[in-house]
Amino acid sequence: SRKVEAKRPKNKPKISELRTSSSSSECGGGGDKMEKITVRVSPQQAHMPERGAARASSAKKKKKSRKNEITAMELEKKKKADDAKIPVPTLTPDQQQDQWLRAILKLGLDKEEARKAGHQYVKLDSDDVKLITTDTLDLVLLSHVSSPTLTAPFSYLLSCYRRATTEAKGAGPDKMKAIANALEVIGSYAFLSLNPQSEVVTPQQIKEGQETFIRLLSADRRLARALPDGFLNNMASNFEDTFAEVIHPVLDTLFPMNPTAPIPVDKVSGTLRSLQVLAAAPGGASAIISHPRFSAPPTCPNGARMEREILLGALVAVTVTKSYERFKGLLMRPPAEVNSVVANAQGLLDDVRAGLAVIFKRMLHASKSSKASSSTPTSSSSSPRNRPTRELVLRWFADILRLNRDRRKMHYFPGTVSSVGTLVNLCGLMGGLCAPFVKKKMHKSIDARYLFGSKARVDYSGVARLCASSKDIASLVDKEQQQQQQDAKKPITGLVSSMLFMTIESFHLGIIREAKGHSKLIGEYRELLDYLKSLGGPESSNPMARQVFERVKLKSQQLHASRSRLLSPMLLQTVASVYNFVAEWIVELAKRKDPLLGIIPEHFIGDMVHFWSLIQDEIRNARCPWSVQYSFGFLEMAAWMMKKDSIVKNPHLKGQLPQLVHLIIDQGYMWKRQEDGGIDAPLTQEAKELFHGGGV
User: Fold this and answer.
1) What b/e sequence results for 570-605 when a residue is b if at least 16 CB atoms lie within 10 Å of its CB, and e otherwise?
2) Which alpha helices (DSSP H) does 198-334 contain, by range?
3) Burial letters for 75-106: b for 16+ Cβ neighbours within 10 Å, e otherwise?
4) Cα diameter, the chain
5) Contact 561, 320 (CB under 8 A)
6) Is the Cβ–Cβ distance between 667 and 631 less than 8 Å?
7) CA–CA distance from 328 to each of 42, 527, 550 (Å)?
8) Would you say residue 468 has pLDDT above 80?
């Protein structure tokens, strides 16, 4: 053998050696053996056979993987075919119900299965019960709720109710029927877990459940932490007659007797929401009315004490804070910022009044029977079953008016009457209750016999009438009594007449009386400003200037607070609509020459004049665009009463009627003078035609 070698040059990559040997073979005709040769090759050439082997190996692996995939797919198809041939065991209806209800209750009757599923094991006295069905659900819940291991029964039942409502989404008919039954049973046990008379749970558990219940009642309905929809209805559906046993302790917690201070308007939303939810539940409104503190006791001496003792007194008395923190620092602020703060306070008070109106409307149409409570308000109001509850609500309004009758006087002691906030809020509340029949113009439903005093819930004795002669009033009363004896008519029980005349009385004691105080407050504020200006302003070196400036700031805060509760556009619109309705009714009596027109109290007309005087500044500031809509009824009434042959004999009242006309006509000119796109209401021409037709 022979070795052939070449010298490797310096600084060159090392050449790998590849030794190849060949076995002896025949070449041509010779028998010589092949020589062993050492060949020098580059690294790239040395790895070429390895790359080829790698490609071949990769292709082989892919082919094998593909083959394995095909084999796996065939096995899967074969397995499915085999599974299809095997019959799937079907569940009985009871087993299906057990599966659904165990998911809702998180309970199990088998200890091992309950442990595997993470559910609570329930040991029943009877070993025959193996499944949780609609028939055994009551027994299972009773055993679990009364168990000492369950610390918070109400919270547990509430969680079960939430899970049931979740399971009900997209459920079939059979499952939906089982869930509906479960919801009813869960609601019943939730009622028992809150009832102090219940023997199923302990007093401590009842107390904790009531605290949770009150917290969820006051929560916002749009949030997840509030009571689920329908929970209260399910809880009260089977216990309407005894629902008060649960509601009364809750009401005592929400409205304690003799509160230390009125509820601030920005902290009343939760309490108001709780009362709305309770009143909407079956039997909830009747339960509120049946509370011992709902009405004022017969021994209550005055309105101030009544406000502190009755159940809803603190809610009706809600107002801006007494110390006027909301309005501090507004004296030197721009008018736009001041108006924004006042409008915010007015909006909060409007929400309270509207919420109270909804609650009292439900109580007026409440009934102790489940059928009446589920019927429409129209059918419920005409049903005799709801008359006892309706009479209690009307008596509630009458008691407030009776105990604040001193506000009719020119001078009275403030400590004997309810707060201004109570009486003004009462105006908005009662005006909201009158809105349905005012909008429908139900003048024919008004019975003027209420004004005689014998049938009315408002005492009109000693009140001046449009007919100045007491002899005429006595003859009308005698004639009415004789007619009632002959016809044997039933006592007057009309809801429209009762609410209307009590609402007018609330306006007289509330917003009209407060309007006079508001005007006085404006005068005092202007006098203080003039006095401060005469002293050289707040920066003056005069020692009296600082004291006067502090009085000006306090008076400014009082003025903003009075404006917030009194001059709300929504409240003024409500009052204007009721007064316009009364004016149209008076015109109808005058057109048909009804003798009952003479018994209308004079202060009805005087209050209308004071009301239009009150809102003149609001009209000029374009905050009362609805004033044009409600002015025509007043104009027509004034046209009839200013005739030469009018029954109005009081010269002072006749002098007020032109004042009322002047105020309305003046606002008509004001609207026409506006150059910023105000309402164009040619009231002047309308009034001319109206007064010409009336013979004035």
Assistant:
1) bbbbbbbbbbbbbbbbbbebbeeeeeebbbbbbbbb
2) 203-217, 231-236, 244-254, 269-280, 284-289, 303-309, 313-316
3) eeeeeeeeeeeeeeeeeeeeebbbebbbebbb
4) 167
5) yes
6) yes
7) 96, 20, 12
8) no
Asked whether 156 and 200 are in contact (CB, 8 A), the reply is no
Distance CA 308, CA 314 (A): 7
CA distances from 167 to 108, 139, 162, 471, 673 (A): 18, 22, 9, 76, 65
DSSP state of 595: G
Quickly tell me which residue has 């869960």 as its tokens: 186
- Tell the residue number behind the tokens 């005092």, with chain if given: 524
Pairing of β 107-108 and β 37-41: unpaired
The span from the CA of 589 to the CA of 476, in Å, is 15
- The structure tokens 């306090």 sit at 554
> Cα(583)–Cα(660) distance, rounded to whole angstroms?
12
- Give the whole-angstrom CA distance, residue 228 versus residue 183: 12
Separation of alpha carbons 373 and 362, rounded Å: 10
Any residues with CB less than 8 A from the CB of 343 and at least 6 apart, and which? none
Amino acid letter, 669: Y
Residues 6+ apart with CB under 8 A from 165: 183, 228, 229, 230
Indicate if the pLDDT at residue 5 is higher than 80. Answer: no
pTM for this entry = 0.77
- 520: number of Cβ within 10 Å: 10
Contact of 512 with 607, CB cutoff 8 Å:
yes
What count of other Cβ atoms lies within 10 Å of the Cβ of residue 567? 21
Taking the C-alpha atoms of residue 151 and residue 148, their distance in angstroms, rounded to an integer, is 7
Residue closest to 248 by CA, chosen among 219, 290, 279 = 290
Closest CA to 565 of 343, 352, 337, 349: 349
Tokens of 267: 């902290």
Place of tokens 């507004």: 330
Residue 325 is classified by DSSP as G
Which range, of 11-20, 54-63, 290-299, averages the lowest pLDDT? Answer: 11-20
Token reading at 682? 């040619």
Token pair belonging to 10: 């310096």
Per-residue tokens: 130? 């193996």
Q: Which residues contact 398 (CB under 8 A, 6 or more apart)?
A: 457, 458, 502
Q: Give the model confidence (pLDDT) of 190-239 as tens digits.
A: 999 999 988 889 999 999 999 999 999 888 777 667 888 888 888 888 78
Q: How far apart are CA 617 and CA 562, in angstroms?
A: 14
Four-point Cα dihedral 575, 578, 580, 585, nearest 10: -160
